[in-house]
């Protein structure tokens, strides 16, 4: 084989490698934009449903696509394509209204036209108390973030969706609110950790365009502030019982 042949073969091999890498990146971009996007949970606002150190997949097509479905939210179009409204009780990722560069995750509580209010720690929708029952206590700081037992209340929305909420601070500052009337094209979001959640009780309503997708499944979970890349911590820090849990 001549020197020229060797050089041509080497050049061709490099070109094929670059082509494969480009195709893989484009495929990853399409999957992330249109199908699934991974997210990590950085705070305790959705405890006990979601914990810090949970890694989950969000389905991007669940609510259709807005500019926020694309990386960096380019201002290419308005509204949503193939729009489908969320259901009450969905755990949804959305862009934080005061700063759309930030992703938030909360539960959809109020639909357009609803009247939402907290009275004495109980949720009211359109003047009716949402059914709830005390199911016991959790005495596990990895779940509650506090070194004492915390009351757990099982809340059931009018459409039958049920989930656990934490009552860390009885008579907390967000246990009694004014009545919020959800405008058209907006939603009222709340965290399941009711006394430790910056949600629509504080920052207001979430526009439909800000929805990113619905949280579906926890694919990895690690405690103690460890990184998934710290493989040597897996034996003691992985929350095995949370792996591949569907999000309710």
From TrEMBL:
The chain crosses the membrane at residues 20-39. Residues 16-220 form the Peptidase S26 domain. It catalyses: Cleavage of hydrophobic, N-terminal signal or leader sequences from secreted and periplasmic proteins. InterPro entries: LexA/Signal_pep-like_sf, Pept_S26A_signal_pept_1, Pept_S26A_signal_pept_1_CS, Pept_S26A_signal_pept_1_Lys-AS, Peptidase_S26. It is a single-pass type II membrane protein. GO terms for cellular component: membrane. It is an enzyme of class 3 (hydrolase). Keywords: Hydrolase, Membrane, Protease, Transmembrane, Transmembrane helix. The active site is at residues 45, 106. It is found in: Membrane. GO terms for biological process: signal peptide processing. GO terms for molecular function: serine-type endopeptidase activity; signal peptidase activity. Its EC number is 3.4.21.89. Gene3D superfamilies: Umud Fragment, subunit A. Belongs to the peptidase S26 family. This is Signal peptidase I. It comes from Nitratireductor mangrovi. The gene is lepB.
């Amino acid at each position: 084989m001549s020197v020229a042949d060797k050089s041509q073969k080497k050049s061709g091999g490099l070109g094929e490698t670059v082509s494969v890498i480009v195709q893989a990146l484009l495929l990853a971009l399409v999957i992330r934009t249109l199908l699934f996007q991974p997210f990590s949970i950085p705070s305790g606002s959705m405890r006990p449903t979601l914990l810090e150190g949970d890694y989950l997949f969000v389905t991007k097509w669940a609510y259709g696509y807005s500019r926020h479905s694309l990386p960096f939210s380019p201002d290419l179009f308005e509204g949503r394509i193939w729009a489908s409204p969320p259901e009450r009780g969905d755990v949804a990722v959305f862009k934080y209204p005061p700063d759309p560069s930030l992703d938030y995750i909360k539960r959809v509580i109020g639909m357009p036209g609803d009247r939402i209010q907290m009275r004495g720690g109980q949720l009211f929708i359109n003047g009716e108390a949402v059914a709830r029952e005390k199911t016991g206590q959790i005495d596990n700081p990895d779940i509650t973030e506090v070194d004492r037992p915390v009351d757990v209340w099982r809340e059931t929305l009018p459409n039958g969706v049920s989930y656990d909420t934490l009552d860390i601070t009885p008579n907390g500052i967000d246990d009694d609110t004014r009545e919020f009337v959800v405008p058209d094209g907006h939603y009222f979001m709340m965290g399941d950790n009711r006394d430790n959640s910056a949600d629509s009780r504080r920052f207001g309503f979430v526009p439909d365009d800000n929805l990113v997708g619905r949280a579906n499944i926890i694919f990895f979970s690690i405690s103690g502030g460890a990184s998934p890349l710290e493989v040597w911590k897996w034996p003691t820090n992985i929350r095995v019982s949370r792996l591949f849990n569907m999000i309710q």
